[in-house]
Amino acid sequence: MSSFKSFILIALSLILINCGDSATKTNNFSIATNAKDNVVQLGETIKLSIHNPNQLDITAITYSLNGIAVNETFDLSNEKLGIQTLTATISYNDSKEDITTKLTILNNQLPKLYGFKVINEYPHDITSYTQGLEFHNGELYESTGQYGESKLRKVDYKTGAVLKNVDLTQHYFGEGLTILNNNIYQLTWRENTGFVYDIDTFEKTSSFKYGQSKEGWGICNDGTTLYKSDGTEQIWLLNSKTLTEDSKLQVYTNKGKIIGINEMEWINGKIYANRYQKNGVAIINPKNGAVEGVVDFSPLRKLVTQHQGLDVLNGIAYNPETQTIFVTGKRWDKLFEVEVFEK
User: Fold this and answer.
1) Nearest in space to 219 (alpha carbons), one of 207, 236, 202, 206
2) Which residue, among 252, 128, 136, 121, has the nearest Cα to 185 in the 3D structure?
3) Of 72, 94, 128, 240, whose CB has the highest number of CB atoms within 10 Å?
4) Is the CATH code 2.130.10.10 the one for domain 112-342?
5) Distance (Å, rounded) from C-alpha 311 to C-alpha 301?
6) pTM here?
7) Max CA-CA distance within the chain?
8) CATH number attached to the domain at 24-106
9) What is the DSSP pairing of strand 162-167 with strand 174-180?
């Protein structure tokens, strides 16, 4: 046999061996549930079983939901909404096999509808592409967007006067902001970077990178934890000391997920969130991601100066001193103080 033919045979053998090694392992089992298409609502009971087509001798089965042990039958009462992971560990024939499936958990109630009443109107910079809004000690802080226009400001909300201002470099597109422990946290959009400022001096003290979330949209806090949106249905919970994404919520109704979660505000134990390109606000349960209410602010857009650059509602802030909500929009010339009520 020539050396060339030997080389060809050896190469073919290696190809066959490699193809065999790369074959996908087939599971012997699969998880079955009593839920149609594995979609359930809070309060329902889930029954799990194992599909065992080869009739293997199973000696033990354990189940878990997102890593927490559950029984073969369990109730969904305090679970987070959205797509969750069911895992079964099966012992058989002196072997073990882990298998998973996805379970989609919906809310079990319709969102309540809320109306609003305008209490006051205040001037707002018509050139500001508002992305974030928050009160602290009676003064309003605002983050704005667009490359070459992004800034961080402290504003006298009654007059619209700018008390402090920091311009971002043209490489950054400003997004949401929140204030915690005398620090201002400001997000940027696609730059995978958040900034931390001293609230008194507006000096930038540090920056942080995002984790699994790919973009920065809105941010708020509950006094301990930061909540960050990324334009999807997901809200990420950040450790306020390390600024790492420790966990997440998925925003769902009784019908499905709600995407475009944007600027957020923590109000009396709930997250109020603008939805991108929508003139409304979702009221979200921060424990499980359920949309519990919806406020339709669409009439407000007709009350501001109509001009070519006018854009959607964006910017919501709660003033604890007045116990009222303030809303505005991108390039709106008014800031509205409102009361919200259930219809």
Assistant:
1) 236
2) 136
3) 128
4) yes
5) 9
6) 0.89
7) 95
8) 2.60.40.10
9) unpaired
